[in-house]
Design a protein that fits this description.
This protein is mainly β and 307 residues long. The protein has 1 helix and 27 strands. 45% of the residues are buried.
Amino acid sequence: MWSLSFKPPEIIEARVLTRLPDALRQPRRTDWVDANKPGHVMDSFLEGPVFDRAGNLYVTDIPYGRIFRITPVLDWQLVVQYEGWPNGMAIHADGSLWIADYRRGILKLDAASGAIEPVLAHRNSESFKGVNDLTFDSAGRLFFTDQGQTGLHDPTGRVYRLGTDGKLDLLLSNAPSPNGIAVSEDGKLLFVAVTRGNQVWRAPLLPDGSISKMGAFQSFFGTSGPDGLALADDGSLVVAHASLGGAFVLNARGEITHFVRSPGGQTVTNVAFRPGTGELVMTESATGTVLSAELPVAGVPLFSHRS
């Protein structure tokens, strides 16, 4: 059931905004590809779209440890290539790019120089399972998922919050593959995409910093599941789905109101609003393509763009 109106969601057709140039593609095997896409030879796997204040779009290329900048005129620039598996990204108010790196934990990148420094590599001397995605709330606290290879067979994925004072809180420890993450603009709700459970979970964030009554907000199906998340300014939640060829828009009740359909490729992994607009960009990772669509609502103001 899509919604209580029993009407199917409105279809929004996405278009190709840009694609990774052939000269930057690297068709070869890597350890990440062998583990996550066995039997495939991939030339890229794009994720983590974020916009800076100048209108540049940044994306990660997980298996090859690359961060790209896509300028407003759609020129692709390699910012850095390093030994790691960068996945989700978020931009801090100071302009630095924070990276959820599956191998190395939370990193910080100076996009101007390409310098990378560690922020958080472990918790209490224990390595992370494999961090996946991250977001800042309006107060600058960092929320991130520790997915690793968890799933229904091993529901031990975690969600953490790193305070501006450096305090690390474990908020959730029983998720079967926590992936995308979002926090409401007022800081009162936490959303987590649980990929192998094929659900989006929702929990109140309480005044003492804990969560309570985590529940399934919406359930999906498919060979993979929900991935990246983005919030709209009317309270809607955009959910990229990594095997159904698009992104779903959920209203505040969890009803599916729209489906943003990929023009080609089923592996829509991450979504981001161009700040101040209703333009949604999506990474179609299997083809190394960035898609674009116009939604009837704009994205929430980002911590990186607050004055």
